[in-house]
Amino acid sequence: MGIRRDSLHKRRSTGGRQKKWRKKRKFESGRIPAGTKISSNVCVRRLRVRGGNYKFRALRLDSGNWSWPSEAVSRKTRVLDVSYNASNNELVRTQTLVKSAIVQIDAAPFRHWYESHYGIKIGIKKVKGQKVEESVVEAKRSGSLTRKIASRQKDRKLDPLLDEQFSTGRLYACISSRPGQCGRCDGYILEGKELEFYMKKMQKKKTK
User: Fold this and answer.
1) Would you list the DSSP string of 12-28?
2) Backbone dihedral angles phi then psi of residue 157, each to the nearest 5 degrees
3) DSSP state letter for 19
4) Residue 198 region, left (φ>0) first, then alpha (ψ -120 to 50), else beta?
5) pLDDT tens digit string along 70-110?
């Protein structure tokens, strides 16, 4: 029989059964889901598909290319954990990488970029009742670079929720690629309203 992706075996929208008026077609056949896992032993299989094209089925991945939308910068970094999946909690339990899953990634590459770009340290752990002043990265700089960094700081804005995450060394991100189709695990860092939304969802799940 195999896996089918047709709708001939289903009922009509009115509820009536459909008569079999033709046989199965090759283009309606499906395949077993990839079930991509987090592992340093990376495994990506090449798959020949219809039309002589190729898909890349990632079975195990540990890193990807992640974008920071508000800063328009991207860095390659490790995927550490699957935190939330809107479609199925089982995919969180089994740590499966799929599109739109919320994962935790290593914050170090983005923290290094931010400190070199703005000349300010971020992700400093805060002690209750104490004010934390912004500490400037001390390094020898030319006059032109000092002026450039000063001009960058005029429009600098960092989400407080993101700053908290930098102190833990992990950032929440959303997968935007399809690991089972293109063999890559790429995405973007969550911030603003979207981050707040998913933080609430994850908090609600913890309290249940």
Assistant:
1) PTTSPPPP--S---GGG
2) -140, 130
3) P
4) alpha
5) 989 999 999 999 999 999 999 999 999 999 999 999 999 99
